[in-house]
């Protein structure tokens, strides 16, 4: 497993890095068999330390957590506790679905764009949006249940995925009423 432990304008010492690796390894061994990499970033916000942790599993799941505390170790422990809870829920849901994924999730590449926000004062010269940034993104091949689970665990409002059965691009999203919506475009004519 690869660890990337960084600090934004904070020096991260060897003792903290060792603590992060030890604690995160303990959490991951309980719930997942094959973690691929973990990213932990520490920063400071006023008088509080902020810890953002992200763990990628070979099943395609990305679990993320963020915690704040006055002590840097307490901030990490809070984030690790949230990751523990997410992974516990993920494992419980996998058992409830009575299926074990034998192969890692297939992932295909795609382009992701950030578009400039329109200002209310000015009229755009063209109907083409202004692209601020372009990035590579990964689109996993999942079942609908796995897609909903991954969206909820990541805390994302929407998830684009390839449906495992027909290979079509689908979308699950959180509705305003709290339910989950699923968009399954018709294939063919």
UniProtKB/TrEMBL annotation:
Q: What is its main location?
A: cytoplasm
Q: Which SUPFAM superfamilies match?
A: Ribosome binding protein Y (YfiA homologue)
UniProt entry tagged with the keyword NADP:
no
**Ranges where the Sigma 54 modulation/S30EA ribosomal protein C-terminal domain occurs:** 128-181
- Pfam families in the record: Ribosom_S30AE_C, Ribosomal_S30AE
InterPro entries to which the protein is assigned, alphabetical = HPF/YfiA_ribosome-assoc, HPF_long/plastid, RHF-like, RHF/RaiA, Ribosom_S30AE_C, Ribosom_S30AE_C_sf
Write down the CDD domains for this protein, in alphabetical order: RaiA
Keyword Membrane in the entry? The reply is no
Q: What does this protein do?
A: Required for dimerization of active 70S ribosomes into 100S ribosomes in stationary phase; 100S ribosomes are translationally inactive and sometimes present during exponential growth.
Subunit structure and binding partners: Interacts with 100S ribosomes. Associates exclusively with 100S ribosomes, which are dimers of 70S ribosomes.
- What family classification does the UniProt entry report for this protein? Belongs to the HPF/YfiA ribosome-associated protein family. Long HPF subfamily.
HAMAP family per the UniProt record, alphabetical? HPF
Q: What is this protein called?
A: Ribosome hibernation promoting factor
Name the species this protein comes from: Jannaschia pagri
Gene of this entry? PSrp1
